[in-house]
Amino acid sequence: MRRDDFNIMSNIKVIEGLKADLICVIGQLFKLMTKGANVAKDDILNSISGAISLLYILADRMGYSYEAVDEEIKRKLKEGIIEQDEIEVQGKDLSKLYNHLRERNK
Question: Which pTM value belongs to this model?
Answer without folding.
Answer: 0.85
